[in-house]
Design a protein that fits this description.
Strand order of the largest sheet: 1-2-3-4-9-10-11-13
Protein name: FMN-dependent oxidoreductase, nitrilotriacetate monooxygenase family
Number of strands: 13
Helix content: 25-40%
Structural class: alpha/beta
Largest sheet: 8 strands, parallel, barrel
CATH topology of the largest domain: TIM Barrel
Order of helices and strands: EHEHHEHEHHEEEEEHEHEHHHHEHEHHH
Pfam family, one: Bac_luciferase
Strand content: 5-15%
Organism: Pseudonocardia dioxanivorans (strain ATCC 55486 / DSM 44775 / JCM 13855 / CB1190)
Family: Belongs to the NtaA/SnaA/DszA monooxygenase family.
CATH class of the largest domain: Alpha Beta
Radius of gyration: 22 Å
Binding site for FMN: 60, 106, 156, 160, 231-232
Length: 457
């Protein structure tokens, strides 16, 4: 039995050349070389807003992939996440070019300072009218650690302990340092801010010592909409406590369904309603007027993909150099915790296949480790509806596979079909990012969320 549940839509990009569909920068129709121009980004934002997308989700990293062959050669040749610019600095321009679209920006709790990051997000939330979200990451790569003066990454579980305290600090800054009515702007009494309604947060913890008052006035959301993508035990627990949107990446619907069940159960365990976690799978959509034309387009894209680039990224994920292995040796025989943990994704995707480095490099072409939807607008809409009903996802992170083509194709072809079915917005409801997630009137964090515990009047 189907419902008329709204399908939420996020555009998914990184401020770089090679993101999910590695190698497609060589396609003659790909406009990604213009990633350093503001009109490139404002054009993307306008396109997504024309389709009433909820948000643009911008991934980021501050290191370089250097595990494959023990060098950065393939990474540089194939523009694998490099060059990459700071996405936070792009948001103001995109927000000025739009009125409703939200922007989820990636920032790390491991390398940022909570006071500084709180100020950045408060600023963006204020000047955009509450259209900002934060994709929370803890950063695991050795390269990033070295770039911030460390000899090696902080151990996994400790990164999440740091992140938990980091969140407590920023919640105090955003939610409890200033009362809602602290800014009075009274010219006659010469009182701009009422001193009685601003206070120090006096945070003194294991990792952070932040005693003072916050220096930004309250913004529309106070706490930005919060996204997270951790899939480990610690990552799931963190998402259950803090996240409002969760990004998952699996190639099959049953795998995503299992992940959604785990996340919603964890939310309940954390004292939150299961529906307060909105789940978005990584999704590659290749569409055209007919199924046949869409598949022709997909195979054309695959011709530009490079297995070596995919293996370079996979090497960084599992912390094992795939170039040092026999390309045709099944990975089940390789002794590595990192490989075996990631290999389970592939074995579940196709248990009959012998997963060798060569096979994985080919499998990751175009759609990476996410879902793939290929077909006419009717076919794609059918598939998206099936995932919403069967996997209990709330929407999709639509990857910008071929820049200047993918988002316009989706907006011009798939969105009208979804609108005909009553599945997506024809006009926006609510003003803030969080209202996109929870509905008009819900600009602030929901009951049961830890940020709400720090809220003052």
């Amino acid at each position: 039995m189907t419902s008329n549940r709204r399908i939420m839509l996020n555009g998914f990009k990184s401020a770089t050349i090679g993101h999910t569909a590695l190698g497609l920068w060589t396609h003659p129709d790909n406009a990604v070389r213009d990633y350093g121009r503001l009109d490139y980004w404002t054009g993307i934002a306008r396109t997504l807003e024309r389709g009433c997308f909820d948000a643009l989700f911008i991934a980021d990293a501050q290191g370089v992939i250097d595990v494959y062959q023990g060098s950065t050669d393939v990474t540089l040749r194939e523009a694998l996440g490099i060059p990459i610019i700071d996405p936070m600095l792009l948001v103001s321009a995109m927000a000025a070019a739009t009125e409703h679209l939200g922007f989820a920006v990636t920032a790390s709790t491991t390398y940022e300072k909570p006071f500084d990051l709180a100020r950045k997000f408060a600023t963006l939330d204020l000047v955009t009218g509450g259209r900002v979200g934060w994709n929370i990451v803890t950063s695991s790569s050795r390269s990033e650690a070295e770039n911030f003066g460390m000899s090696k990454p902080i151990p996994h579980d400790e990164r999440y302990r740091i992140a938990d305290e980091f969140m407590d600090v920023v919640y105090k800054l955003w939610e409890s340092s200033w009362d809602d009515d602290a800014v009075v702007h009274d010219r006659e009494r010469r009182v701009f801010v009422d001193p009685a309604k601003v206070r120090r947060i006096e945070h003194h913890g294991k990792y952070f010592d932040v005693p003072g008052i916050f220096i930004c006035e309250p913004s529309p959301q106070r706490t930005p909409a919060l996204y997270q993508a951790g899939s480990s035990t610690a990552g799931i627990a963190f998402a259950a406590r803090h996240a409002e949107g969760v990004f998952v990446s699996f190639p099959r619907m049953d795998m995503v369904r299992d992940a959604v069940r785990t996340l919603r159960a964890a939310a309940v365990e954390a004292g939150r309603p299961p529906g307060d976690l909105k789940v978005f799978p990584l999704s590659t959509v290749v569409t055209a007027e007919t199924d046949e034309l869409a598949w022709e387009k997909y195979h054309e894209y695959r011709a530009h993909s490079r297995s070596e680039a995919n293996l370079a990224r996979f090497s960084a994920l599992v912390h094992v150099d795939m170039a040092a292995l026999d390309p045709d040796e099944p990975l089940e025989y390789v002794e590595s915790d990192g490989i075996q943990g990631s290999l389970s994704v592939f074995t579940k995707a196709d248990p009959t296949r012998k997963w060798t480095p060569r096979e994985i490099g080919e499998f990751l072409s175009v759609s990476s480790m996410g879902a793939l939807f290929v077909g006419s607008p009717t076919t794609v809409a059918d598939q998206l509806e099936e995932w919403v009903e069967q996997a209990d996802v709330d929407g999709f992170n639509i990857s910008d596979t071929l820049s200047s083509v993918t988002f316009p194709d989706f907006v011009d072809l798939v969105v009208p079909e979804l609108r005909r079915r009553g599945r997506v917005w024809s006009s926006y409801e609510g003003a803030t990012f969080r209202e996109h997630l929870y509905g008009p009137g819900h600009a602030r964090t929901m009951p049961g969320h830890p940020a709400t515990e720090y809220r003052r009047g």
